[in-house]
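Problem 12. The chain below contains 163 residues. Write out its predicted structure in token notation.
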Amino acid sequence: MFIRKRAFALLLGGLITATAWGDDEGAPLRPLAATLKAKTPTVKAGETPVFLLTIQNKGKSPERLIDAGQKNLQFVLYNIEVRKNGKLVDLPTAIPGLPPLDDKSYVTLKPGDKVEFEMTKFALQLRKLPAGQYEARIVYSNWPTEGKSTIYESPFAEFTVEK
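Solution.
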């Protein structure tokens, strides 16, 4: 698991240079705000939980994101972390290749706009979670046409896996 996490971190790190500073005077340092909730708070063992990720631009400039409405992009570029009793859960992970990106791969949020993505595809194999109570969050990034990206984390959403 350690090697898989490091491989994903290297993949993500190679694609994104993180910074928390914006260039717009008076703009929030982190203009994107997210909420995350389990679409169905309880799933059966062997099923993959589905989450609703809402991202809002609270800044003064447009923000560009990977379009997580495209499942092949969500699988690769939106990472999920799952915890049980505050500890990271160790699950098998698929290490996907990066699909080709084009103009249709992005969504741009104007100031005040928000978008909701139904998150169903993950590199982490959530269907292998045993019964129990969990919390999850999504790690994602903006993708500016110029400058550096910022890595964001959604708040945690709780969900339960039943036998």
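Discussion. The domain at 2-162 is CATH 2.60.40.2970 (Immunoglobulin-like). Students who got a different answer should revisit the alignment rule from Section 12.3.
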